[in-house]
Amino acid sequence: MSTNKIAQSPVVSRSLLVPFILVTTCFALWGFANDITNPMVKAFSRILMMSNFEGSLVQFAFYGGYFVMAFPAAMFIKRYTYKSGILMGLGLYAAGALLFFPASLSSQFWPFLFAYFILTCGLSFLETSANPYILSMGSVETSTRRLNLAQAFNPLGSLMGMFTAQQLILAKLNMATATERATMNPAELAMVTSSDLAIIRFPYIAIAIVILIMFVLIAITKMPRLQESDHQLHVGVTLRRLLKNKRYYEGVIAQFFYVGAQIMCWTFIIHYATMELGMDEATAQGYNIVAMIIFASSRFIATFLLKYISPGKLLMVLAIGGILLSLGTIFIQGITGLYCLVGISACMSLMFPTIYGIALKGLGEDAKIGAAGLIMAILGGSVMPPLQGAIIDMGTVFDFSAVRVSFVLPLLSFMVISVFGYRAFRVY
Q1: Which pLDDT does position 428 carry in this prediction?
Q2: Is residue 404 within 8 Å of 329, Cβ to Cβ?
Q3: Are 383 and 67 in contact (CB under 8 A)?
Q4: Nearest to 63, CA basis, from 259, 300, 198
Q5: Is residue 115 within 8 Å of 138, Cβ to Cβ?
Q6: Crossing angle for the helix pair 40-47 and 57-79, nearest 10 degrees?
Q7: What is the pLDDT of residue 231?
Q8: Which residues pair with 400 in a beta bridge?
Q9: Mean pLDDT by 10 residues, the chain (428 residues)
Q10: How far apart are CA 284 and CA 328, in angstroms?
Q11: Rounded to whole angstroms, what are the CA distances from 47 to 98, 168, 395, 406?
């Protein structure tokens, strides 16, 4: 199909508009969960007097849930419906959020990790269901644009999560550092810790109520059944086909590195601002919010540009931009380096849905299982942040600030993505 015909094709038909809106709302809801969580790495490190590596285990548990549940979610969706998968996801999301109440009473770290894990098992169901569901709500030619449009609402939820983290959590926590807490007597420390953990749990309880309301709305709404009548899994046959598809498995690799880069840039922007520039955490979170505003704006712009530029080409160009800004983050000191780090979000805006759309293009019914591989690739957000946290804990690396050196990991990630974009543009 020509570029003109693609531009003129409706992204969503009128008959599917209500289901599209409801499913798109779920994109904002998991965006909230993702981005209220990133600042918690720094918060838990201070409250429970842990290293940056230990605090980043929040991300390990959070994104580990995506990895563990993606394939079971795909099999569940194949056996039942996309709507069933979304409802299961919302139920687990609410359950995990509600677990923050007993976790906060324990004053220990592992119950929070368990709560995050359950919560993100729900997010895994949601993303494994919602992304291919959106792709299938219209023509193949407009599928990547449609997914980019739906994903454009994800950062709106992310902004709400970031704002909640800044104003309702970070700004209200006791300002005592981990070192100062270590000098407190046991009774005083227990009181301060309990108060801080109570502050953390409140937004999660509130979002659980919102999720339950959304569960009811989707449950009572008639949603299109876009599955074929064959509900047999045929997993082995499907996997063999997928593993022979270079565009698909290279897309999974690119997605692993993209999610790792995204979570690293958004999680450790607070560390960069506090350790390099001496900002307090609430002020540093303000730069994270600016990064997300840039991300959200750029995603709408990128969705518009996809009417005229092929997805692979635009992906390659933005990945090169990410490489250059990562170099600036590493080698330029002071506020300019922080600006480079914030600017990376403009380049990342297009990446997740575009990699997703390119990898699943033309897979047909195999997309149900293929979607699981792309959601499992979110494991990059579980594996790479602890590595970056371990580098930051080193203090200095070859006389360079370890905080700045740690951004070599996002740099390498954008290199991988640029190669995938080039291959999508020139080879596949």
Answers
A1: 67
A2: yes
A3: no
A4: 259
A5: no
A6: 130
A7: 52
A8: 397
A9: 52 80 92 86 84 82 84 85 93 96 91 93 90 80 79 86 88 83 88 91 93 94 66 70 88 94 92 91 88 89 86 95 97 95 94 89 77 84 88 86 94 97 85
A10: 19
A11: 21, 16, 21, 24
3-state class (DSSP) for residue 2:
coil
Task: Provide the token pair at 72.
Answer: 């079971």
Structural domains in the chain?
13-223+232-426 (1.20.1250.20)
Q: Which residues contact 289 (CB under 8 A, 6 or more apart)?
A: 159, 162, 163, 166
Q: Quick check: 319 and 347 in contact, CB under 8 A?
A: yes
Quote the CA–CA distance of 190 and 184 in Å, as a whole number.
9
Kindly list the distances between the CA atom of residue 107 and the CA atoms of 191, 201, 205, 353, in Å, as whole numbers in the listed order.
Answer: 10, 12, 17, 38
What backbone torsions phi and psi does residue 151 show, to the nearest 5 degrees?
-65, -20
Adjacent-strand bridge partners of 194: none
**Reduced to 3 states, what is the DSSP secondary structure of residue 200?**
helix
Collapsing DSSP to helix, strand or coil, 262 comes out as helix
Q: Is 367 helix (H, G, I), strand (E, B) or coil?
A: helix
DSSP-assigned states of every residue in 236-247? HHHHHHHHT-HH
pLDDT of res. 2: 46
User: Which residue has tokens 């929040």?
Assistant: 58
With beta carbons less than 8 A apart as the criterion, state whether 9 and 142 touch.
yes
Query: Torsion over CA of 199, 204, 210 and 212, rounded to 10 degrees?
Result: -140
pTM above 0.90, yes or no: no
Chain length of the chain: 428
Phi, psi dihedral angles at 400 (to 5 degrees): -100, 150
Looking at this protein, which amino acid is placed at residue 342?
Answer: V
